[in-house]
Protein backbone atom coordinates (compact mmCIF):
# COMPACT_ATOMS: atom_id res chain seq x y z
CA UNK A 1 0.00 0.00 0.00
CA UNK A 2 1.40 3.31 -1.06
CA UNK A 3 0.98 6.23 1.29
CA UNK A 4 1.10 9.63 -0.33
CA UNK A 5 3.62 11.88 1.40
CA UNK A 6 2.12 14.73 3.38
CA UNK A 7 2.74 18.03 1.72
CA UNK A 8 3.47 21.16 3.75
CA UNK A 9 3.13 24.59 2.18
CA UNK A 10 4.93 27.61 3.57
CA UNK A 11 3.46 31.13 3.36
CA UNK A 12 4.56 33.32 0.47
CA UNK A 13 7.76 35.20 1.26
CA UNK A 14 6.92 38.52 -0.43
CA UNK A 15 5.74 41.23 1.99
CA UNK A 16 2.39 41.74 0.29
CA UNK A 17 1.52 38.04 0.51
CA UNK A 18 2.96 37.23 3.95
CA UNK A 19 0.20 35.67 6.06
CA UNK A 20 -0.23 33.99 9.40
CA UNK A 21 -2.72 31.22 9.98
CA UNK A 22 -5.19 31.88 12.78
CA UNK A 23 -8.61 30.61 13.89
CA UNK A 24 -11.67 31.87 12.08
CA UNK A 25 -13.02 33.42 15.28
CA UNK A 26 -9.77 35.22 16.13
CA UNK A 27 -10.18 38.87 16.99
CA UNK A 28 -7.82 41.83 17.03
CA UNK A 29 -7.21 45.12 15.29
CA UNK A 30 -5.87 45.38 11.76
CA UNK A 31 -3.48 48.21 12.45
CA UNK A 32 0.14 47.85 11.33
CA UNK A 33 2.33 49.80 13.71
CA UNK A 34 6.08 50.26 13.45
CA UNK A 35 6.87 47.28 15.69
CA UNK A 36 4.64 44.95 13.66
CA UNK A 37 6.15 46.19 10.42
CA UNK A 38 9.71 45.52 11.59
CA UNK A 39 8.69 42.03 12.82
CA UNK A 40 7.23 41.23 9.41
CA UNK A 41 10.34 42.57 7.71
CA UNK A 42 12.57 40.39 9.90
CA UNK A 43 10.46 37.32 9.14
CA UNK A 44 10.64 38.12 5.45
CA UNK A 45 14.45 38.26 5.58
CA UNK A 46 14.63 35.05 7.62
CA UNK A 47 12.62 33.00 5.12
CA UNK A 48 13.82 34.59 1.89
CA UNK A 49 15.05 32.39 -0.93
CA UNK A 50 18.88 32.45 -0.81
CA UNK A 51 18.94 32.01 -4.60
CA UNK A 52 16.54 34.90 -5.09
CA UNK A 53 17.13 37.36 -2.22
CA UNK A 54 15.01 40.41 -1.66
CA UNK A 55 15.90 43.47 -3.65
CA UNK A 56 17.65 46.05 -1.47
CA UNK A 57 16.09 48.99 -3.27
CA UNK A 58 12.61 47.53 -2.80
CA UNK A 59 13.24 47.11 0.94
CA UNK A 60 14.49 50.68 1.27
CA UNK A 61 11.43 51.93 -0.62
CA UNK A 62 9.13 49.98 1.70
CA UNK A 63 10.87 51.39 4.78
CA UNK A 64 10.69 54.92 3.42
CA UNK A 65 6.99 54.57 2.61
CA UNK A 66 6.20 53.21 6.05
CA UNK A 67 8.24 55.96 7.74
CA UNK A 68 6.34 58.58 5.74
CA UNK A 69 2.95 57.16 6.75
CA UNK A 70 4.05 56.83 10.39
CA UNK A 71 5.32 60.41 10.35
CA UNK A 72 2.02 61.72 9.01
CA UNK A 73 0.14 59.79 11.70
CA UNK A 74 2.36 61.20 14.44
CA UNK A 75 2.03 64.70 13.01
CA UNK A 76 -1.77 64.38 12.97
CA UNK A 77 -1.74 63.37 16.64
CA UNK A 78 0.59 66.26 17.50
CA UNK A 79 -1.67 68.75 15.72
CA UNK A 80 -4.67 67.32 17.56
CA UNK A 81 -2.85 67.76 20.88
CA UNK A 82 -1.93 71.35 19.99
CA UNK A 83 -5.55 72.12 19.02
CA UNK A 84 -6.72 70.72 22.35
CA UNK A 85 -4.21 72.88 24.24
CA UNK A 86 -5.20 75.99 22.31
CA UNK A 87 -8.87 75.22 22.95
CA UNK A 88 -8.20 74.99 26.68
CA UNK A 89 -6.28 78.27 26.57
CA UNK A 90 -9.17 79.98 24.79
CA UNK A 91 -11.52 78.69 27.48
CA UNK A 92 -9.18 79.95 30.19
CA UNK A 93 -9.06 83.39 28.56
CA UNK A 94 -12.85 83.50 28.19
CA UNK A 95 -13.32 82.70 31.88
CA UNK A 96 -11.81 86.09 32.63
CA UNK A 97 -14.94 87.62 31.06
CA UNK A 98 -17.20 86.25 33.80
CA UNK A 99 -18.58 89.17 35.80
CA UNK A 100 -18.03 91.59 32.92
CA UNK A 101 -20.49 92.71 30.24
CA UNK A 102 -20.21 92.38 26.47
CA UNK A 103 -21.80 94.52 23.79
CA UNK A 104 -23.69 92.28 21.37
CA UNK A 105 -25.91 93.07 18.36
CA UNK A 106 -29.64 93.04 19.08
CA UNK A 107 -32.45 95.04 20.68
CA UNK A 108 -32.97 92.94 23.82
CA UNK A 109 -31.56 94.61 26.94
CA UNK A 110 -30.96 93.11 30.39
CA UNK A 111 -29.85 94.62 33.67
CA UNK A 112 -26.29 94.33 34.95
CA UNK A 113 -25.45 93.86 38.63
CA UNK A 114 -26.06 97.58 39.20
CA UNK A 115 -29.51 97.49 37.62
CA UNK A 116 -28.45 99.37 34.50
CA UNK A 117 -29.90 98.73 31.04
CA UNK A 118 -27.56 100.15 28.43
CA UNK A 119 -26.57 99.95 24.79
CA UNK A 120 -25.94 101.99 21.69
CA UNK A 121 -27.03 102.39 18.08
CA UNK A 122 -26.24 104.37 14.94
CA UNK A 123 -28.55 107.26 14.12
CA UNK A 124 -28.67 107.42 10.33
CA UNK A 125 -29.74 111.06 10.09
CA UNK A 126 -30.34 114.04 12.35
CA UNK A 127 -33.68 114.30 14.14
CA UNK A 128 -35.47 116.79 16.39
CA UNK A 129 -37.43 114.42 18.63
CA UNK A 130 -35.50 111.24 19.34
CA UNK A 131 -36.79 109.07 22.19
CA UNK A 132 -36.05 105.56 23.49
CA UNK A 133 -38.47 103.15 25.16
CA UNK A 134 -37.81 99.91 27.03
CA UNK A 135 -40.76 97.52 26.80
CA UNK A 136 -41.53 94.32 28.70
CA UNK A 137 -42.83 91.09 27.15
CA UNK A 138 -46.39 92.41 27.36
CA UNK A 139 -45.44 95.42 25.23
CA UNK A 140 -45.75 97.88 28.11
CA UNK A 141 -43.33 100.77 28.43
CA UNK A 142 -41.24 100.18 31.56
CA UNK A 143 -38.78 103.06 31.12
CA UNK A 144 -38.32 105.80 28.53
CA UNK A 145 -36.21 108.86 27.84
CA UNK A 146 -36.71 111.92 25.62
CA UNK A 147 -33.46 112.93 23.92
CA UNK A 148 -34.85 115.65 21.63
CA UNK A 149 -32.48 117.02 19.02
CA UNK A 150 -29.75 114.57 17.97
CA UNK A 151 -27.22 114.67 15.15
CA UNK A 152 -26.52 111.64 12.97
CA UNK A 153 -23.96 109.24 14.38
CA UNK A 154 -23.52 106.90 17.34
CA UNK A 155 -25.91 107.30 20.28
CA UNK A 156 -25.45 105.64 23.67
CA UNK A 157 -28.26 105.04 26.18
CA UNK A 158 -28.28 104.01 29.83
CA UNK A 159 -31.33 103.38 32.02
CA UNK A 160 -30.81 103.15 35.78
CA UNK A 161 -33.36 100.74 37.28
CA UNK A 162 -33.85 101.09 41.07
CA UNK A 163 -36.52 100.14 43.57
CA UNK A 164 -38.02 102.55 46.13
CA UNK A 165 -35.11 101.93 48.49
CA UNK A 166 -32.57 102.76 45.79
CA UNK A 167 -31.40 99.19 45.28
CA UNK A 168 -30.71 97.74 41.81
CA UNK A 169 -33.92 96.39 40.28
CA UNK A 170 -33.80 93.66 37.65
CA UNK A 171 -36.91 93.95 35.48
CA UNK A 172 -36.02 91.06 33.19
CA UNK A 173 -35.53 91.16 29.44
CA UNK A 174 -36.66 94.45 27.92
CA UNK A 175 -36.98 95.34 24.24
CA UNK A 176 -35.39 98.56 22.99
CA UNK A 177 -37.62 100.73 20.79
CA UNK A 178 -36.25 103.85 19.09
CA UNK A 179 -38.72 106.58 18.11
CA UNK A 180 -38.42 109.72 16.02
CA UNK A 181 -35.44 108.71 13.94
CA UNK A 182 -33.90 106.10 11.65
CA UNK A 183 -31.51 103.86 13.59
CA UNK A 184 -29.34 100.88 12.73
CA UNK A 185 -26.66 98.67 14.31
CA UNK A 186 -28.54 98.45 17.60
CA UNK A 187 -26.51 96.66 20.30
CA UNK A 188 -26.93 96.14 24.03
CA UNK A 189 -24.66 95.38 26.97
CA UNK A 190 -25.27 91.97 28.57
CA UNK A 191 -23.48 90.45 31.58
CA UNK A 192 -21.52 87.20 31.20
CA UNK A 193 -22.80 84.70 33.76
CA UNK A 194 -20.55 81.74 32.90
CA UNK A 195 -18.48 80.09 30.16
CA UNK A 196 -18.82 76.62 28.64
CA UNK A 197 -17.01 74.63 25.98
CA UNK A 198 -18.32 73.92 22.51
CA UNK A 199 -18.06 70.68 20.56
CA UNK A 200 -15.01 69.71 18.55
CA UNK A 201 -12.48 72.02 20.21
CA UNK A 202 -14.47 75.00 18.98
CA UNK A 203 -14.37 78.42 20.60
CA UNK A 204 -15.75 78.79 24.15
CA UNK A 205 -19.33 79.95 24.62
CA UNK A 206 -20.31 82.90 26.80
CA UNK A 207 -23.54 82.25 28.70
CA UNK A 208 -25.64 85.42 29.10
CA UNK A 209 -29.25 86.23 30.14
CA UNK A 210 -30.19 86.66 26.46
CA UNK A 211 -28.62 83.36 25.38
CA UNK A 212 -25.27 81.92 24.36
CA UNK A 213 -22.77 84.24 22.69
CA UNK A 214 -19.49 83.40 20.94
CA UNK A 215 -16.58 85.71 21.85
CA UNK A 216 -16.22 86.67 18.17
CA UNK A 217 -19.78 88.09 18.26
CA UNK A 218 -18.93 90.54 21.05
CA UNK A 219 -18.39 94.08 19.73
CA UNK A 220 -16.87 95.34 22.99
CA UNK A 221 -16.15 94.10 26.50
CA UNK A 222 -16.66 96.25 29.58
Radius of gyration: 36 Å
Count every beta strand, where a strand is a DSSP E run of 2 or more residues.
12
Tell me the distance between the termini: 102 Å
Q: What is the helix content? A: 10-25%
Query: What average pLDDT do the residues reach?
Result: 77
**Name of the CATH first level of the largest domain:** Mainly Beta
Strands ordered across the widest β-sheet: 6-3-8-1-12
Number of structural units classed as domains: 2
Query: Per the principal axes of the C-alpha atoms, what is the gross shape?
Result: rod-shaped
Low-confidence stretches: 1-19, 85-89
Q: What string, H for helix and E for strand, traces the elements in order?
A: HHEEEEEEEEEEEE
Q: Count up the helices.
A: 2
List the SSEs and their pairings.
Blueprint: H1 34-46, H2 56-95, E1 101-105, E2 108-109, E3 116-123, E4 127-135, E5 141-150, E6 153-160, E7 174-179, E8 183-191, E9 194-196, E10 205-208, E11 211-213, E12 220-221
Antiparallel strand pairs: 1-8, 1-12, 2-7, 3-6, 3-8, 4-5, 4-7, 9-10, 10-11
Amino acid sequence: MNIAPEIFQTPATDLAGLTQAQPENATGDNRLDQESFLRLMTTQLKFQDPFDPLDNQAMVAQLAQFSSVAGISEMKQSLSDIASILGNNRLSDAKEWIGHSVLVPGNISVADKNGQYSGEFELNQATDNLSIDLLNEAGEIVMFVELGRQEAGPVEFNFDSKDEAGNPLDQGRLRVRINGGSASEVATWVPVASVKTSEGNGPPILVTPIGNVFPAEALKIG
